[in-house]
Amino acid sequence: MFLSGILARGRTRVKASDARSRTRALRWLAPLAWMAWIFYLSQQSTPLPVEAASAHVSFGHVALYGGLALLLFWALHGLAGAGDGPLWLVAGLAFALTVLYGAADEVHQAFVAGRTASEADLGLDAAGALLAVLAVTCLPPLLRVCGGGAPHATRHQ
What we know:
single chain, mainly alpha
């Protein structure tokens, strides 16, 4: 009886640990899928018609890489112990990984027919990543200061 209780408790701990591991692993599927989508778009010889290219491409870079930074932040924040550390550290790592992927993407585009590598595009990628990590690190404290947080108890006399 005593031994079966110990064994049952051990199985329960393993199952809970496995569930957390699976959840952490699943968090990485979203940024990996997003990276695959960016890679697919970069593989296209002519992603947009020439007349629509200028403003749409700029917004596209900022949006795609801002989204990637948010997903990487979410995945990194889900790592064991990452939620205990400073938020800016997780955001900085998400930013660095996003810019690194943007640089690799620009090198990739240099080998695609009809595409070129561009420092300006990498700058737009970095701008999107920076906006995203600033949003997740600066907006929550600002919302609390501006009254968006928990309501404060007031005393009526």
